Fold:
Amino acid sequence: MTNHQTCIKERTVKLICEVFPHDPDNVFWSINGEKIENSKSEVKYSEVTVKDPSLTIFNVNKHAAGSYQVTASNAEGSTQSDVIVLDKPQIILKRRQKSDGRQVFKALIDSIPSAYLAQWKVKGKDDETYTPVKGSTEEYKGTSNSLPHPVLVIKQRELLEKNCFLIEVDNFVGKSVKEILCNDNSNKSYRTKGKESTEWEKKDGSRVVSNDSELSSDSNTDDEESYWKKEDGERKKLAKKKQKAKDMTFLRPTTGHLFSKGIQNQKDVLPSIVRAEVSKSVGLIHIDGNAMGTGFRVGENYIVTCAHVINDAITAMPHFIDSERTSIEFGRTLYNKKEDPHQIFRIIDIKYLDREYDFAVLELDAHDTGVSFPPALTCFGKVCCSHVYLVGHPNCRQMMEDNVVPYWLPKHNEIILPDIKKLGDWSKGFFPYRKDYYVELSYPPRKIMFHTTFNQGSSGSPGVVIKDEKPCVVLMVRGGVPSCIYDGTCPTYGPMMKDDMKVEYGYAMEDIYEKMRNSSLEKDRNIASEIFKTWKC
Structure:
């Protein structure tokens, strides 16, 4: 179930569900893992039946925020839909510098429920209060607050240096604000001869700049609107074709016998025990109180994660971190669970950082109350099994798990290379600027590829196998391709992509260990010896 409808006038959201191909015996919805019961809820929901499994949420407000999922069951078993999240709007800014020097910012808004109000605002660098930007004035001519894609047009770059800008976006759950900081040196003019620049601001605040000779030299607002209309038209056209498949929840076929065994669902309990053990060592990394990614315990007082997860807190390269801003929270097993101060530890230092493998070893501060560190994962090994279990925090929310089948080069050349070529050709015809987002999978360092439901926020998650009835870490999740989908630079294209066109990957702990062990620095070798205590091939 991925479809939804927002009625602004009635202040309702309808989560649309179709069960296919067979009618279920029972259907119910849950929020944050708990079954919805109208009698116990602050929010009013519609009654759900097997004939009409869609859920309507009335008078939507902040109390309706959360992760919604439908469960359908029949005599053969049960299945669950994808999760759909109701939350404040998510805002990503795309910046285009026009050939005449105008700065154009477009707000891409991801919002369930749909946003109903957007407003660009401005203030001088010495002022206290923001005021609405007036699109009728010459310096901001072409500015629009119209949804779904508000546009800010700034005639002269000097206005960016003298002022601060922001956009406010409201939905029924709440208000989100995205700032364009004044005197931000990173907002410099990105231009090359004969080219126009496009700059994306990611969700984590970092920026990506693209210079491409195929970018048009638009010089007026009409062309700008045509550019966005064409992009949105293609998105809607492809999304419509895939709508039917997306809105279905599948059940196993029913039989005429109530107690028919059908497909056997028995599983060994050992993997569940091992994953539960791993979960004690996995935490959610925060910067300035915002969840950024996953990390896990190693060594005496360390955690490891992807280096890009902590980028915003690195004050000087490569080994200084702002310890007042960074922490890791363990035991986050429910989305709406109240933070437990005894499970939160400050990150005080970077002990090792490697950009090639996007790998960081971070030191934890002892807890003020004397609480012990969570247990460390101490066993590591090679990727040699047909299944790897992932434990992490996708969407930077509660802890989740998934199991994946790993592939890597050169062992699986015959399987992987043809697919990389095929996907690369598709990428050049689908994404702007004819870019092949998949070719990086064949570049060093070696990438362990797989398909997973894990997404943003899962970077730094451990991938484990079972050795001698114990967890053995074999990889760490890095991200996925197309990278523009995972880093948020092309959010409008994500819904149009089939899942099998997204490829996630991680780095092998074996490769990371070899690099640390062979380092010319003794301190790196000592840290490797402390972290990678036990190896099982």
In short: The mean pLDDT is 82.
